[in-house]
Amino acid sequence: MTREEFQQLCRTKIVFLDGATGTNLQKAGMPTGVCPEAWILEHPDTMMQLQRAYFEAGSDIVLAPTFTANRIKLDEYGLVDKIEEMNHQLVAISKEAAGDKGLVAGDMTMTGRQLAPMGDMGFEELVDIYKEQAGYLVDAGVDLFIVETMMSLNECRAALIAIREVTDLPVCVTLSFNEDGRTLFGTDASTAMVVLQSLGADAVGVNCSTGPEQMAELVREMKEYANIPIIAKPNDGMPEVVDGETVYRMTPEEFAEEAKLLLEAGAGIVGGCCGTTPQHIRAFKEASRAYTVPKVSKTYKRVLASERQTLEIALDAGFKVVGERINPTGKKKLQAALREGQMDMVMDMALAQEEKGASILDVNMGMNGIDEKEMMLKSIEIVTQAVNLPLCIDSSHVDIIEAALRVYPGRALINSISLEKEKFEHLLPIARKYGAMFILLPLSDEGLPKNIDEKIRIIHTIMDRALELGFHKEDIVVDGLVATIGANKNAAIETLDTISYCHDQLELATICGLSNISFGLPERSYVNTAFLTMAISRGLTMAIANPSQDLLMHAAFASDLLMNRPGSDIRYIDRMNAFKEAQTGENAAAAAVVMTPGEKIFDAVMKGSQGSIINLVKEGLDAGIVPDDIIQKHLITAIQKVGVLFEEKKYYLPQLIASAETMEKAITYLEPMLIKDDAEEKATIIMATVEGDIHDIGKNLVVLMLKNYGYRVIDLGKDVSAECIVETAIKEHAAIIGLSALMTTTMMRMRDVVELVQEKHCCSKVIIGGAVTTQSFADEIGADGYSRDAAEAVHLVERLLGK
Questions:
Q1: Which pTM value belongs to this model?
Q2: Distance (Å, rounded) from C-alpha 508 to C-alpha 474?
Q3: Contact (Cβ atoms closer than 8 angstroms) between residue 755 and residue 785
């Protein structure tokens, strides 16, 4: 199936996928703890019967049962040497079931290992793992790909890049979202759509984790930015425990009635996930006959994205500042830090610019004495953990820009692409491959344009080629190419004319580097500010500038106000009120600008500054702070504050992990200095992902947090039997057993642990967590507590232990 054929299919009908596989196979006798793919190959008729039933119910596409048939997961069952054979055979089962009734999608998902810095896997290693499975699925004859049940946006990107480097078949991607509308890693639905469709996905959507009604809002969020079909594959409501079994209570008719909301919200590709059956698909298909095919918008928006935030850039909306500070040019302290491999200053610059009002951060690592590519990749890792702003990738070298775009977990802006042969011929296709927006710099191999006519000719040449490659005008931001007024008296006028032409005639966004205009002049800030206000009045969209320059920033907000741009009055008032408050606070605290050693330690944990934490701890010890006080008064206090921010959705998983690892590093350094007092030693906690489940990111985070609070944590890993968990708890005199499960097919193993604890007269209390679990489920199985996330797990443990 070609990509155009897939899009044509989506234009002509509401496309139906299949329903659940795992829950139906369990009903058919598949036990937990086995490799699902191996069991299916031992019972091919069961799988074939289920998929034939889906086609008879109205499915147009079924997913081959290759969900976890990747190298990492098969290796855990000792089956990695059969990976090619298994993928081929599993697809063959589905193709036989399909016959001429429909299509077969190669199904792929997470590997169970996490990308760095959350885990130990490198991006290219993950791409290679996905490429291997994708190659086998192409050879087996799948018609398209569906990458599903994803929680990490960058893992989605790795899978999509991998498949695209193997084949040009259609690729669909769906993610699972928590109750707050974000993935475990903090990505919202709009951002997922923006990033993945720009990267070349043929459809993007949502599956699992919730029922149809709750999923409809996620579809609506995606619809706002979607230029491709939207997928919705909800569960049959939320699971409940009835007579010791996990059940889904919605009837097929109830499911179909509620699922109409998905069609009304804009989903054009639909199906079912956990708990749904062929009867659910049949009922949904019948209900859909009253609906027309949702139209896919062909109105394109200028939009950048980080992993956790989308930034829309309209021609005549609020002016945007691209923070310029993360650039070693002229910054001796930053140069020295980078040569030593220290990244804390980069993090501090990112945080400061976000606080001061930057909308985008420019990242440039161009300097002598370092490996620029390595430092660029490190900077992206650090900055994306620290802030939510999208990035502008800035380098003179094509290979460095490509390396950065490949790993960046968002949609970046490239600074820049000119008519110089190397960039024009090579960088445009790279930008297209990775879905980036780019700054069009009107330079050629002959140097600066001689006049505005030549500048306009260069702009058209680059723009026309970009449009030929599949870009849209909304993907292009033209650099006004500011020259120095001291050397060219018409520099400002020529730039302003360029901005006007791009805005009025071409409807292109524009950008400029402000500081060039005033080079060599006294009191440069006044010249820069005056020029900025003039440029905004001519249609300037954004500028590369230092957001710490209050005069410049105030003038930008005031210019928006005077031009009556949407919401500019409130933005200006809010900014000036905040500025007054900040000034008052600064004046009141003028004598306390220098932080104490303890405050520095607290601040480092809040920021996740792993590079500096040991030196700060040493500074604290030298100042006379005893090790126990560093832990109790500064480290613990900081991680508690981080936990509060995480609960309030002001911090997300990357920031939480960075802070927790910073604290862990400090505690590891201090531990040998602590006076041991067995009477005051904190309780032992056993942590495990239950049998049959090989997802552990949530569990690992709870382990890290609990260790940082001083508990003795024994992590048994994933896919752990009830017997092993309870025996270890008895042997180690554990006060708490913590259980994690991500899949509805394995959550009942938690009940097994609770029952075995009672049977063995184990004194440990049992707490549970994971995406599929709820407080009511904990009550049903007799667990002692339930937590939604790592921060809440700490509070739960302390409450159960009477802290």
A1: 0.89
A2: 7
A3: no
